[in-house]
């Protein structure tokens, strides 16, 4: 991956999409082989894969996302993750690497989901419970 860090420095990146994928056709039912599952980091600006990590046979994306975050140069980029990636460890890694993040949040996240939902509702009423930034806020950082 050292060579890729040098290439990555030449390719400006503003959004890195991280998502898990099950590779079609990789399962073999007659040999009881499970399908191959990977976590992929995609450069939205450049249209190339920045990295991939195989998900362990008895695991899921939650354990693979931190591994791919360690491989990436995310300073100044926005990292997007689905709800499976909504983990404290991932947010900490992104912030420590001086990146920003957009993470999907589902209702099964319990108290966190309720807190975020309530914060946006209060923001709409002109109150700030948390530091909430919406796409319509003039404080949003320009990607230019």
Unreliable segments (pLDDT under 50, ≥5 consecutive)?
A: 138-144
CATH top level label of the largest domain? Alpha Beta
Report the portion of residues in β strands. Answer: 15-25%
CATH topology value of the largest domain = Nucleotidyltransferase, domain 5
The CATH architecture of the largest domain can be named as 2-Layer Sandwich
Mean pLDDT: 80
Order of helices and strands: HEEEHEHEH
Major sheet: 5 strands, mixed
What's the N-to-C terminus distance? 28 Å
Tell me what you see in this structure.
The chain is α/β, with parallel strands linked by helices and 144 residues long. It has 2 domains: 2-104, Ribonuclease H-like superfamily/Ribonuclease H (Nucleotidyltransferase, domain 5, 2-Layer Sandwich); 106-135, no CATH class. The protein is built from 4 helices and 5 strands; from the N terminus they run αβββαβαβα. The chain has helices at 2-10, 61-71, 88-96, 111-124, and strands at 15-22, 37-43, 48-54, 78-81, 100-103. A 5-stranded mixed beta sheet has the order 3-2-1-4-5, covered by helices on one side. Helix 3 links the parallel strand 4 and strand 5 (100-103). Helix 2 (61-71) runs parallel beside helix 3 (88-96). The chain starts with a helix and ends in a 20-residue tail after the last helix. Residues 138-144 have low confidence and may be disordered.
